Amino acid sequence: MIRTFSNEDRDETIDKMGEATYDLLVVGGGVTGAGIALDACIRGLKTLLVDQQDFASGASKNWSNLFHAEIQHMHHLEMKMYNDLFKQRLILKENAPHLIKQTELILPTYKTGLFTKSFRSKLLDRLTEMAFKEKRKHITKKELAKLEPALSLKHAKHASLYKEFLIDESRLAIDLLKESVKRGLDALNYMKVESFLYENDKISGALVVDQNKNEVHKVTAKHVVNASGTMVDSLRVQDRSLTNIVIDSVEDYFFTVPRDRMPVHHAMYIETEQHQLVSLVPYRQSIIVGHSVQKQNERTSNKELLDLLNRTFSEHPLEDDDIEASWVVKRPYPIDKKKKHHEYKRQEWIESPSGLLSVVCGQHTFYRSVAEQVVDRICKQLHHKRNCQTDTVTISGGYVGGLDDFLFYKKKRTEEGLQYGLTEYEANQLIDRYGSNIGQLYVRLRTFGKQAKMFGLSPAIFAELLYCIEEESILSPVDFLVQRTGYLYMDKALTMTVKEPIFRYMRDRLNWTEEQELRFREKLESEITQAYET
């Protein structure tokens, strides 16, 4: 099998990096950085991307982003901006259909609260009509009781039903990178930019530290893009180019509870006493409870959220032990300190006197649009006349014929998975995660399935681990359990069962030193502790 994106080839990529002069160095391996890299590679720019952690480990570490997530910050809505959002969403549905899950969103209407305000409800209706060419469906109290039997209707008046989509942002970042690597990108995780290099006061590259071996390497590049998310300003400080435009962040708090403890069948929003919105998303075998705040002191505690859920749902009262995993995602956004109330923006790119381009994209649906603007700018400076083509470029895993054809593709591939001994749930989960790359997992399942027991793993998990080592550049067990699969958050029992066999296999296969083994052990235990201690 040809390996296109593996850390087993890391030394070769590092050697190549030291010898080359790149047109573009991208710092940051989330959705924004990966989108810029793909656009640049398609236009023929020699591009390197580095990230000081694993790919998709920052703001892109989001496993269930709702289309209507923006209603949590309703006062920031701008209709012109959302026209572009809907256009980008349609493109994404065609280019990466395996990462878009269609569902329904229920908004219960109560006697008091956000959704009794005509402005907000009409605005949401308008957004939905713009996005999906259809209006909301009004649901009576009786119909709501049939759709969500566990929902307490003591204060509810009725509800609205909207078409909704979930986006797997972690997988989007990984698949963008895989497609970019196929098109010539050099990409390395665990590479920290220690300092920038300059020539005649213009940025000309960077010194990067290999976090895996603690070695320093020089990178020469004509242009540098800083797409490091919440770390954008720290690199701007290095560049001595910090201005009145600074980066703040929204903190998204999540925890999961088992579906059998909270029988919710639709995505929905409920409201706290402080009129803050809490999202509930059925995902795999869990319900993801999400809560976003701009200031940490505004956060509603897990105990308060459990009390809210117990008041909202009349059956199955939840207790602390029902929270299986919790995590935090920080999403950056730029603010202008000179403007009143620190004007809130969803996207921004800032060019410093040295030529450093710093990019922030708080809503990842805009990633392609932001990438187009940034690469247009770079191509103009390089006198490189090639236009953006990413609106028609299928992303790795998306070669199934678009969203409408994905359901047929999934059914066919699920039947194939059953022949290899997978359950229907296992096959569906793998196809949703890897899309048209599922054939490569099936090859590994067929070839190495019998060896899985030797390493204490099921054939499905072993095939997935092999694929992620050989095709998705994982370096540690956390990379596999969090950024590539989400198992650590979505399946606690499975994670606790497979973490040791995965650790041992990766240790032996990747020939870790004692120092690396200790570091990866500490990292794994730290992630587990943070996720499972509520």
In short:
By secondary structure, this protein is α+β, with helices and mostly antiparallel strands. It has 17 helices and 18 strands. The protein is globular.
Task: Walk me through the topology.
Blueprint: H1 10-19, E1 21-27, H2 31-42, E2 47-50, E3 65-66, H3 79-95, E4 100-110, H4 118-132, E5 137-139, H5 141-147, E6 156-167, H6 169-182, E7 186-188, E8 191-199, E9 202-210, E10 215-226, H7 232-238, E11 245-258, E12 267-271, E13 277-283, E14 286-293, H8 302-312, E15 325-336, E16 343-344, E17 347-351, E18 357-361, H9 367-382, H10 403-419, H11 424-434, H12 438-448, H13 459-471, H14 477-484, H15 487-490, H16 492-509, H17 514-532
Parallel strand pairs: 1-2, 1-10, 2-7, 4-12, 10-18
Antiparallel strand pairs: 3-6, 4-6, 5-6, 8-9, 9-10, 11-14, 11-15, 12-13, 13-14, 15-16, 17-18
Helix pairs in contact: 2-6, 2-9, 10-11, 12-13, 16-17
Enzyme class: oxidoreductase
InterPro entries: DAO_C, DAO_C_sf, FAD-dep_OxRdtase, FAD/NAD-bd_sf, G3P_DH_FAD-dep
Pathway: Polyol metabolism; glycerol degradation via glycerol kinase pathway; glycerone phosphate from sn-glycerol 3-phosphate (aerobic route): step 1/1
How does this model look, in words?
Its EC number is 1.1.5.3. InterPro entries: DAO_C (IPR031656), DAO_C_sf (IPR038299), FAD-dep_OxRdtase (IPR006076), FAD/NAD-bd_sf (IPR036188), G3P_DH_FAD-dep (IPR000447). It catalyses: a quinone + sn-glycerol 3-phosphate = dihydroxyacetone phosphate + a quinol. Keywords: FAD, Flavoprotein, Glycerol metabolism, Oxidoreductase. With 534 residues, this protein is of the alpha+beta class. The protein contains 17 helices and 18 strands. A hairpin with a 5-residue loop joins strand 17 and strand 18. Helix 2 packs parallel to helix 6. The radius of gyration is 23 Å and the shape is globular.
